[in-house]
Amino acid sequence: MPHIAIISSSVRTGRNSHRVALYFQNYLQANGHGTTEIIDLNEYSFPVFDERLRFQKEPTEKMLDFSARVKKADGIIIVTPEYNGSIPAALKNVTDLLYDEWYHKPIAMSTVSDGAFGGSQVIIALQFTLWKMKALTVPAMFPVPKVREAFDETGNATDKAGTDKRAAGFVKELLWCIDAAGKMKE
């Protein structure tokens, strides 16, 4: 059974994308798709990094914890809002902190916005960054437009049946990539 980490990328006050991270944790567990954990960037309060982790002379416990949690995961779902058409600074910061940890890691992306497009522009920047690090980006996406109307604060979808149907296809692709990556390591 795979271990899937869900990175909740927003550190803003009143953030809404965390609702989607909670949804995925509940969905994955309820459907027996594996063990899960949320890696909440809001809980780390990282400074802006001046170097990748492997080159830092005295990495903090939080940096090492983040690295270990990413490394331990068989697959990752990144839930990210779109800020001004791009990646939130907190997510770009931790993406660039690591390198080897992303190598051949299956990563699925869920983009979120308050508007009608569901964060569709952020996917391009994030996917390109992850490709450069040789992560295995999952071709399925899970955009969430009008997130405050789609999910409550505890991660419950207002259209549970429709959302679960979309999530099933998204998660199926992630699980396929996790399985394929596992076979390639053998």
TrEMBL record:
Residues 3-146 form the NADPH-dependent FMN reductase-like domain. InterPro entries: Flavoprotein-like_sf, FMN_Rdtase-like_dom, NAD(P)H-dep_reductase. SUPFAM superfamilies: Flavoproteins. Pfam families: FMN_red. PANTHER family: CHROMATE REDUCTASE, NAD(P)H-DEPENDENT FMN REDUCTASE LOT6. This is NAD(P)H-dependent oxidoreductase. It comes from Nemorincola caseinilytica. The lineage of its organism: Bacteria, Pseudomonadati, Bacteroidota, Chitinophagia, Chitinophagales.
